[in-house]
């Protein structure tokens, strides 16, 4: 079974104060390199007086694009810990920018790594997670005599009805996960003794709240 495709539920920011330094992590959903860079530029502009605006992002269905930057912090103490926080949460299509306002007390390499990692992780928790699922619309044409039974069957299987059109027959459109279309189509045909017709329509991206075990 493939891993769920997870991303953040909403764009958000979270602030921590560690030894008088302010760490503000801003996270956002993005679907391209350009969008990630625009968000980084936006946060950096809004925090132009900050000591550092470090970042990391992952874009693509297989995380084909991965970037990180320490933005002046010692090498490997900021960008990589932020990126690893995204990876540990199994996130995709997400950018995180951690803004630091220096408070006068040096943290050392280990302290910086923990600070940037924790800042990103806490922002991810605040944003929440969703699973993105590709769903197809199945257009079912059924007789009025079978309509109530169909609705009952769909409710039993927790299938969302997208729309219904009433004419000489009833056309009921439903959402089904793309990887379950073939199996569910077969179930419907068998259950209703081939007395309905099913046509596959367009697809959509559906978001399901995700809670890690």
What are the secondary-structure elements, in order, as H or E? EEEHEEHEHEHEEHE
Number of strands: 10
Helix percentage: 25-40%
Q: Which class do the helix and strand fractions yield?
A: alpha+beta
Low-confidence stretches: none
The Rg value, from CA coordinates, equals 24 Å
Residue fraction in strands: 35-45%
The major pleated sheet works out as: 5 strands, antiparallel
The helix tally amounts to 5
The termini sit apart by 17 Å
* Oligomer designation: single chain
Mean pLDDT: 95
Shape assignment: rod-shaped
Pfam family, one: DUF1949
Family: Belongs to the IMPACT family.
Protein name: YigZ family protein
Domain Impact N-terminal: 19-124
How does this model look, in words?
With 213 residues, the chain is α+β, with helices and mostly antiparallel strands. Helices cover 32% and strands 39% of the residues. It has five helices and ten strands, in the order βββαββαβαβαββαβ. The strands form two sheets. Strands 1, 7, 8, 9 and 10 form a five-stranded antiparallel sheet that branches. A five-stranded antiparallel sheet has the order 2-3-6-4-5, sandwiched between helices. A hairpin with a 3-residue loop joins β8 and β9. α2 runs parallel beside α3. This is YigZ family protein.
């Amino acid at each position: 079974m493939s891993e769920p495709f997870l991303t953040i539920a909403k764009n958000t920011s979270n602030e921590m104060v560690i030894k008088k330094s302010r760490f503000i992590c801003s996270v956002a959903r993005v679907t391209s390199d350009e969008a990630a860079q625009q968000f980084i530029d936006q946060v950096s502009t809004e925090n132009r007086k900050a000591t550092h605006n470090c970042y990391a992002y992952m874009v693509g269905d297989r995380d084909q694009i991965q970037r990180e930057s320490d933005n002046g912090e010692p090498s490997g103490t900021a960008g990589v810990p932020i990126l690893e926080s995204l990876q540990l949460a199994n996130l995709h299509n997400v950018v995180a920018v951690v803004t630091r306002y220096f408070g006068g007390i040096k943290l050392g390499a280990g302290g910086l790594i923990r600070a940037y990692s924790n800042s990103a992780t806490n922002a991810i928790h605040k944003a929440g997670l969703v699973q993105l699922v590709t769903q197809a619309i199945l257009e079912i044409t059924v007789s009025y005599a079978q309509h109530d039974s169909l609705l009952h069957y769909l409710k039993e299987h927790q299938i969302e009805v997208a729309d219904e059109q009433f004419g000489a027959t009833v056309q009921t459109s439903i959402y089904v996960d793309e990887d379950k279309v073939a199996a569910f189509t077969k179930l419907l045909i068998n259950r209703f003794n081939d007395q309905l017709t099913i046509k596959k329509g367009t697809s959509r991206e559906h978001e399901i709240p995700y809670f890690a075990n």
